[in-house]
Each structure stands twice: as C-alpha cells, then as structure tokens.
Amino acid sequence: MAAAPAPLPAAVAGWWERVNGSPAWQDGIFGGLAVLYGIIAAASFIQVARIQRRVPEYGWTTQKVFQLLNFVVNGARCSIFACRRLVQQVNPPIFQHVILDLPGLAFFTTYAVLALFWAEILYQARGLMTDRLRSGFYTINGIVYALQGFLWLCLWWNPNHSMLVISKLFIAGLSFFTALGFLVYGGRLFLMLKYFPLDSKGRQQKLREVGKVASICFCCFLARCIMMCFNAFNKEADLDVLYHPVLNFFYYLLVEILPSSLVLYILRRIPAKLQISQYQPLSSG
C-alpha cells in the first residue's frame, strides 16, 4: 500500500486564515489595490489632458471618451479600496452592493466603447451606416443599468442568498457577452486588416494593436465571468467582504488592473497635431 501523504505543517496550512484575519494585512492589501488603481487613474487623466492639448479641435473623440471613462472607473475603485472599512459599515447593506458593483458596470461601459469603435470601423469599411450602432450601444447600456437597478431593488426588498446569487450571475453573464463581443468584432477587424495590402500605411501596427487588445479584453472578461460564477456559488470566495483581502487582490489584479494597464499602454499613442498649410504668394518674376 502506498504511504499516506504527510500532513502540511500548521504554519503553512493556516497562512490563508491568518492573513485574511489580520487587520494589518487587510489594510495593506486594500491600500495596495487603492494605489494601483490610483496610478492607472492618473495615467488616464494625463492622456486625456495630452490629447486635449494636442488636438483641441477634435472634440470628444472615442479615444478621449475611453480614457476619461478609465479615469472615472479607476478613480472610483481607488476611493472604494482606500475607504474599504467605511464602505463595509454602510447601512442599509444594499448601499454596500451599489457602491461595490457600480464601478464594475462602468468598467463594462468603458470597454464597450472600444468594441463600438471597432464595430463602426467595420461598418464604415463596408459602406454601411453607423447610426444604429450608436443607438444600439445606448440602448444596451440603458437596459443593463436598468436590470441591475431592478436587482438592487429586489435585493433591498428581499435580502436573501438567492437574490445575491442572481445579482452576481447577472454580472457574470454580462462579462461573458462582452468577451464574446471582443471576440467577434476584434476578430473581424483583425481579419480585415490582415487582408489589406502589405504596403498599406500603418497596417502592421494596427494589426498588432487590434490583436493584442482584443486578446487581452477577451481573456479579461472571460476570467471575470468564471470568477463571478465561482463567487456566486462559493461563500468562501465572497469578494464583497472585508475578510478576503488575498482573494480580492488576485481577482482585481487579474481582471481589471493588469488588463487596463496593458490596454492603456498599447493605446498610448495620441493623434498627430494638425498641420495648417501655409499659402505663400507667387513670385512676380
């Protein structure tokens, strides 16, 4: 008979409980998340300021809106993690769910703007009108926020575990369809660019840019979907409590901080400054 595996030392077996139960570790981990989100928010704000200074005549372009929404989402996350103990004491508890869930919905809207931009490029390349895309974007976002608001009201009216599971599965489903959107529109745009002539200006750079961003966003939202499903059915994996700082750190690092940092780095280029042609009078000679 094979020998039974030796039990793990008590110091190793209980490290998870000790870290999660330590107020010092809780404050340190949540403070570290606040710093990371603050850095991303500051980088997004600087990008908005750079674009506005470089080409103020362009108005609110998709790139500027995307960067501004990143600043809002990451700034909100930074504030929430910096004040996590105060958030955990908010009453009634439904307001805790609103505070913790709202940045996740804004994160969805932020990256839906990027998917909308790619879809508009595909439609314009085929000579199709893009008005329906924008109206569809606003409609889908309105429905998503309305459904989430309805779930919050139901959770407030009847705060049981089943309603909490439904609310988390709604975020999981939303993440899945967002990942699917990046797979469809990002993949189609990648293939369209791939079949452009090899000597097309900026083809290779745009090809790499779309391929990397689409892959990162697809993996990010798919991982978000899997983690939210796990979170919904496993009480020990609850992300909304103060006593799971390690789980919170890895979750937000993998599904928001790293993807946002990589996407912002890849899309760091800002528009070139407009060159106004100077007309000179002809020589009389």
TrEMBL record:
Its main location: membrane. It is a multi-pass membrane protein. Residues 13-282 form the THH1/TOM1/TOM3 domain. Keywords: Membrane, Transmembrane, Transmembrane helix. It is found in: Vacuole membrane. GO terms for cellular component: vacuolar membrane. The chain crosses the membrane at residues 28-48, 68-87, 99-123, 135-158, 170-193, 213-233, 249-267. Belongs to the plant tobamovirus multiplication TOM1 protein family. This is THH1/TOM1/TOM3 domain-containing protein. It comes from Urochloa decumbens.
